[in-house]
Amino acid sequence: MVITIPATSANLGPGFDTMGLSINLRNEVEIVPSPYREIIIDGEGAEILRRAKRNYFVDIFEQTYRELTGKEPKFKIRFFNRIPISRGLGSSSSAIVGALTGAYEMAGVPIRKEKLISLALKYEPHPDNITPATVGGFCVAKVKRERVYFLKKFIPPLLKAVIVIPNRPISTSKSRGALKREYPLKDVVTNISSTAMITAAFFSERFEMLKYVVEDKVHQEERMKAVPDLFKVREIALNNGALMATLSGSGSSYFCLAYRDDAYQIRDALATEFRDFMVRVYHFDNYGVKVYR
Ligand code: HSE
To answer: What is the mean pLDDT of the segment spanning 127-143?
Structure first.
């Protein structure tokens, strides 16, 4: 069995812990029954992942398989990772969603994607990456009594993602801890109105509206100070025609949304200025996790 899981970009600026979208940059995991346990890791971050004491994917996969079957898991698992780690592109969500999907498939227990998202919440307590990683597209999501409610919209192919990947990470847990606990009412209103407008723009496909309404007072400015070049990344992207340019999740990557015809100009302008950063154009993904048997 092969599972592929997409990268995701969460928050989209003001929609902190609430919205995200799926990018067609996929990690691939092959799982095969085997007389002995074997783990092979290739691709992005392979060195770091091979040295780590624990493998997040393998832990969740084996624990879930045990719970579902009562049997000891014996599999050969081969990873080919493409999603950079600790860069705000959903690499941990891809591990959670991939591991749960793999365990249910291997145990022969059917599970609906809606249920899988709520299970994934146990490992990542905000739904903005796990939801698009599971179902693809643009997603808004809300957690209520440990259940995730979400709505998804297909992203049309006329849109592309331009992603800037800096050469250093920002830790999600540390940067969450550093955020303010209280915000002035006017900042709260800025984020609520901006998040509502982004949702309406995606669902009604009025993407040009995004140029005027994306504003965040909750987390981005504080987090971007860890990689100050990101302020210039945002300015260059917007000056070259991006519809929006926001920190991807908790960073350090930057997510820019653009019409297909503008995407390569934005990429070239950013790549010329930031030679140490990776700048790539990606398609969006509208399907989420996929299983091939
Ligand atoms: N909403 C999360 C955060 C995204 O900003 O901390 C990272 O998964």
So the answer is: 98
Provide φ and ψ at 187, rounded to 5°. Answer: -70, -40
At 6 the three-state DSSP class reads strand
Asked whether the beta carbons of 160 and 260 are under 8 A apart, the reply is: yes
Whether 147 and 166 share a structural domain: no
The atom number, within ligand 1, closest to the CA of 250 reads 5
Q: What is the CATH number of the domain that holds 169?
A: 3.30.70.890
Tens of pLDDT, residue by residue over 58-75, are 999 999 999 999 999 999
The C-alpha atoms of residue 269 and residue 195 are separated, in whole angstroms, by 28
Pairwise CA distance, residues 125 & 96, whole Å: 12
User: For a substitution probing ligand 1, which of 22, 91, 126 has the most ligand atoms within 8 Å of its CB?
Assistant: 126
CB distance 134 to 118 below 8 Å: no
Query: How far is the centre of ligand 1, averaged over its atoms, from the C-alpha of 109 (Å)?
Result: 30
Indicate if the alpha-carbon torsion angle 238, 240, 241, 246 is positive or negative.
negative
Cβ pair 132, 97 in contact under 8 A: no
- Separation between Cα atoms, residue 98 and residue 4, nearest integer Å: 7
| 197: its two tokens | 């407008």
Same domain, 8 and 150: yes
pLDDT of residue 195: 98
Domain of 91?
A: 2-154+286-292
d(CA 56, CA 31): 15
